[in-house]
Design brief:
Chain lengths: 97, 271
């Protein structure tokens, strides 16, 4: 390894490279949202309401995603439940309201 | 068969009208009967860029509303044979455009013209939707800059969902990328997105790269489409883009920094 290599490696990415990376990330996100039907946000709200009847969860713990592959669509619902209740008062978190 | 081309971008100020004027004039220069329509109702500017602002009597909206005949509203260019401009209204708003009204006029124009070039307004609202609905081709004007690239991606999504071709399940609108205001020196310094990066992100075929050039402002000052300034690199780049659109194989130019001589550097001369 020459001295030059050391200098080259320490060079931070150019602002253009940062622009490209930021764009790739934001567009990947926006493109996936673009094809999702309008009812997804409403579905998410209603699912949240139903689950909340039984389990006390945070508003952002339900993720609804629709994925399309050739021939079929897959609705993916991810619900993150609170950590299993330990003995004692903390256990109330999972009780029905 | 007449073709409808829409010049669009999502973002404003990236060069849609400049490109419409230059590209439409380029098509006419090659002998195709071409009409450029201004869809930016209320913010008319194609007339100024084309230098025919004092000849506007009737406009696109008058024709849609049946207040004037198409032949009364079309303005024949005085420099280039086969070139016509259909200006828009400066006083009305975008609601004056209706899908059927626009469709009817485009059908009428199709009987007489080879190419109908729709200069879209910015945004993804009604005016832009009307401009892209009937398109056979869409030229996406993009600056090598994050907000422009993002908006281009958005407008591509709109074209793929809301154009007539998408709605009716026909062959999709042909998409073309036109990168404008490209500065090879800044690209080389790593200050500006490379055209390859923009292409990789948007993933549509490249029609042309228009270099940042003082010729563009000079031309708009005097109401001349920049393609007529055939000594300028921007003018030549538009000419090349027209050639590629018509199926010619033309290598991309003006994508590397110009090699400056010793004297140039000393005097810091700019083109």
């Amino acid at each position: 390894m020459s001295l030059l290599d050391i200098f080259r490696r320490s060079k931070p990415p150019t602002v253009a490279a940062q622009a490209k990376e930021r764009l790739q990330i934001v567009l990947a996100h926006e493109r996936s949202g673009r094809d999702s039907p309008d009812f997804l946000p409403a579905l998410q709200q209603e699912l949240l309401a139903v689950i909340k009847k039984y389990v006390n969860i945070d508003d952002d713990k339900v993720a609804v995603k629709l994925e399309r592959e050739s021939g079929c669509s897959m609705l993916e619902v991810n619900v993150e439940l609170p950590a299993p209740a330990k003995r004692g008062p903390a256990g109330k978190a999972a009780t029905v309201n | 068969m007449a073709k409808i081309i829409t010049m669009t971008s999502g973002k404003g100020g990236v060069g849609k009208t400049t490109s419409s004027a230059a590209f439409g004039t380029g098509l006419a220069l090659r002998g195709f009967k071409t009409c450029i329509i201004d869809f930016d109702v209320g913010l008319r500017n194609l007339d100024l860029i084309m230098g025919c602002e004092r000849r506007v009597v009737f406009d696109f909206i008058n024709v849609i509303n049946g207040e004037a005949r198409l032949s009364q509203a079309l303005i024949k260019d005085k420099r280039v044979e086969n070139l016509y401009i259909l200006p828009t209204s400066q006083t009305r708003d975008k609601d004056a455009l209706t899908q059927e009204g626009v469709g009817k006029i485009l059908d009428e124009l199709k009987k007489e013209f080879d190419y109908i070039l729709c200069d879209s307004p910015a945004g993804i609202e009604k005016g832009a939707l009307m401009a892209l609905y009937w398109a056979d081709h869409a030229i996406i004007v993009t600056n090598p800059e994050v907000s422009s690239v993002r908006d281009s991606d958005r407008i591509l999504g709109v074209i793929q969902a809301k154009s007539r071709r998408a709605e009716q399940g026909l062959e999709p609108v042909k998409e073309h990328l036109l990168v404008t205001r490209y500065d090879p020196e800044r690209v080389e310094k790593g200050e500006m997105l490379k055209v390859e990066d923009v292409l990789e992100i948007l993933a549509i075929p490249l029609l042309g790269i228009i270099p940042e050039s003082p010729a563009v402002l000079k031309a708009s000052n005097v109401g001349m489409p920049v393609v007529l300034d055939d000594k300028s690199n921007a003018g030549q780049a538009y000419g090349d883009a027209v050639g590629r659109f018509l199926g010619e194989t033309i290598e991309h130019r003006f994508i590397k920094p110009e090699k400056k001589g010793f004297l140039d550097r000393l005097l810091r001369r700019t083109a």
